[in-house]
């Protein structure tokens, strides 16, 4: 019986590609930083210093965002293995040390699913000390036997070069193999590699095939990438704001804050569909409450102008104060804040202190 490694549906394990772009700065899309930074390709401009809020641009593409899966939510078919065995069952119950010991015996005998499970446990430090270098070894062995998840994880390590010898060519081949096998994060990141390899529209056209596959699985990053492609009529795809808006909405519903900001702006403008000020305001508020600094500044402007909501100078001031504390400086909103009287300024500060 083959050992199965566990993972949450829709969330893969560390080591991870670069984290989701820091959208706290309005025109920054994907800063080249991560913990760990595993070398996921990134074609968007780096984030700069805080600056005045501008319309969110649509650079292509963005790296996928990953978080370690919840141990109690697992997908038994993730590695294409047979029904669960003792090691997998122990992992599923949170008995990670037991799972590690059981899997290690089979891993040493060449079982690729067991090797992948061992690698996952080591890479996340579950029940054993975290050991990324040792995890890389086991991912590499499983990748050689064609396990898509191992191919994806080992490709990331080869791109990074910290826990395995850097090898971009081998990483490319493994990422492509995992993508073709249906791993949605591999599909997204292989698209990233294609764009990095050929930044022109021809490269983007090749990448769009994989972005689209990943988007079809519901990966928010891929949905947002495809929204940008349709919004810009890029990569051989026609300009289609209606389709882009649908994709933005799909990503926004998954709390993808960049998509929430763009969707809010589109709804307010009436781009890609009917104008809906209240819904646009609601999406901007959701992104702002989630901590997106650009959204906080934009929400302040919506309150100031009474767009999608009743005008509220106190809340406008409070949300801008919150954004300014995070480093965003908007001359227009600075002027607005200075125009408040002492009583209004005091109320705005008090509200800002209570905002999320």
Description:
With 356 residues, this protein is an all-alpha fold. The chain is 56% helix and 0% strand. It has 16 helices and no strands. The protein has helices at residues 86-92, 96-108, 112-124, 132-144, 148-160, 168-180, 184-197, 201-216, 220-232, 241-252, 257-269, 277-289, 293-305, 313-325, 331-338, 342-354. Helix 2 (96-108) packs across helix 3 (112-124), helix 11 runs antiparallel to helix 12 and helix 14 (313-325) packs across helix 16 (342-354). The longest helix is centred in the middle third of the chain and has 16 residues, at 201-216. It is globular, with a radius of gyration of 23 Å. The chain starts with 85 loop residues before the first helix and ends with a helix.
* Overall average pLDDT: 83
> Major sheet, described briefly?
none
The stretches of 5 or more residues where confidence is low (pLDDT under 50) are 1-74
Order of helix and strand elements from N to C terminus: HHHHHHHHHHHHHHHH
The fraction of residues in strands falls at: under 5%
Shape: globular
Q: Please give the number of β-strands.
A: 0
Treating each run of at least 4 consecutive H or I residues as one helix, how many helices?
16
Give me the Rg, rounded. 23 Å
- Overall structural class, as computed from helix and strand content, comes to mainly alpha
Distance between the termini: 50 Å
- Say what oligomer this is: single chain
- The residue fraction in helices comes out at 55-70%
């Amino acid at each position: 019986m083959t050992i199965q490694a566990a993972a949450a549906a829709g969330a893969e394990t560390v080591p991870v590609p670069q984290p989701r772009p820091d959208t706290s700065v309005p025109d920054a899309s994907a800063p080249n930083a991560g913990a760990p930074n595993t070398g996921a390709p990134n074609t968007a401009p780096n984030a700069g210093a805080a600056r005045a809020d501008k319309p969110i641009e649509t650079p292509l593409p963005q790296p996928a965002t990953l978080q370690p899966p919840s141990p109690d939510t697992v997908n038994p078919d993730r590695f294409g293995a047979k029904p669960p065995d003792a090691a997998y069952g122990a992992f599923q119950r949170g008995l990670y040390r037991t799972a590690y010991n059981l899997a290690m015996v089979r891993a040493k005998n060449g079982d690729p699913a067991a090797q992948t499970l061992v690698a996952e446990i080591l890479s996340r430090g579950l029940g054993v000390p975290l050991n990324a270098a040792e995890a890389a070894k086991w991912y590499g062995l499983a990748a050689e036997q064609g396990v898509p998840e191992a191919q994806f994880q080992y490709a990331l390590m080869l791109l990074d070069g910290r826990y395995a010898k850097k090898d971009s060519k081998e990483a490319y081949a493994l990422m492509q193999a995992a993508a073709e096998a249906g791993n949605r994060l591999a599909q997204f990141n292989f698209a990233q590699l294609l764009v990095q390899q050929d930044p022109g529209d021809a490269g983007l056209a090749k990448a769009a095939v994989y972005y689209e596959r990943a988007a079809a699985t519901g990966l928010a990053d891929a949905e947002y990438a495809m929204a940008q492609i349709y919004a810009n009529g890029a990569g051989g795809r026609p300009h289609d704001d209606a389709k882009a808006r649908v994709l933005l909405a799909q990503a926004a519903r998954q709390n993808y804050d960049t998509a929430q900001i763009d969707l809010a702006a589109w709804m307010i403008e009436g781009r890609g569909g009917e104008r809906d000020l209240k819904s646009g305001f609601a999406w901007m508020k959701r992104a702002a409450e989630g901590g997106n600094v650009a959204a906080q500044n934009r929400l302040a402007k919506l309150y100031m102008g009474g767009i999608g909501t009743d005008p509220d100078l106190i809340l406008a001031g409070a949300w801008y104060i919150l954004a300014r504390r995070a480093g965003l400086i908007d001359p227009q909103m600075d002027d607005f804040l200075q125009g408040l009287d002492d009583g209004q300024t005091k109320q705005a500060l008090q509200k800002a202190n209570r905002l999320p």
